[in-house]
Design goal:
Order of helices and strands: HHEEEEEEEEHEEE
Helix content: 10-25%
Distance between the termini: 67 Å
Largest sheet: 11 strands, antiparallel
Radius of gyration: 19 Å
Strand content: 35-45%
Structural class: alpha+beta
Number of helices: 3
């Protein structure tokens, strides 16, 4: 009887440890949070030929890291209108694109994105377009965004399923750049 009690106790401790283990979405979020306060320069590595990005300096700044929210302004030259907002809720992450005018007011096309459909991995999270995105930007209903992170790079990616549209910006995490001013 004592052996059975000890065995049950060991199983309970094991299950308790398992439930406290971090899932891949949490691990991804923590990996990104380690860059809080840092800025990095990037290059368009897929989807070249976008006039809005051609010959512009691309900077991401992991500006704000709260317990469940990370804000990453993405500057394209002097344009400070874009911020990626990631929110962690249990084993899922929400990606939203916060677009603002220079006076700080919201652009009419803002807050689009979507939730991950599963936990993803500790280095990759995918975000299919949500209902809000479909209502706001009907032609973006088939968008899928994904973000990757590893020791040396962060990528932001967009693919419009059923089309040739692909866009990737790769940031070098091994080289910090000067912290930019605040986004709009």
């Amino acid at each position: 009887m004592r052996k059975l009690t000890l065995l049950l106790f060991a199983v309970l401790i094991s299950l308790s440890s398992y439930s406290q283990a971090k899932n891949p979405a949490q691990q991804f979020f923590e990996a990104l949070s380690q860059h809080c306060g840092n800025a990095y320069e990037g290059l368009v590595t897929a989807g070249a030929g976008n006039d809005a990005f051609d010959n512009k300096k691309l900077i991401m700044h992991v500006r704000s890291c709260e317990k469940n929210t990370i804000r990453i302004p993405f500057f394209v030259g002097d344009d400070k209108s874009r911020t990626w907002v990631l929110k962690l809720k249990k084993d899922r992450i929400l990606l939203k694109h916060d677009h603002r005018h220079e006076d700080g007011s919201e652009d009419k096309v803002t807050q689009y994105g979507g939730w991950t459909s599963n936990m993803g991995s500790d280095t990759l999270q995918m975000f299919p377009a949500d209902e809000q995105t479909r209502a706001l930007i009907p032609h973006a209903a088939n968008n899928v965004w994904w973000i990757t992170i590893d020791q040396t790079s962060f990528t932001y990616n967009l693919r419009r399923i059923g089309s040739e549209r692909l866009f990737t910006v790769t940031f070098d995490l091994s080289k910090k750049v000067e912290t930019p001013s605040a986004p709009w």
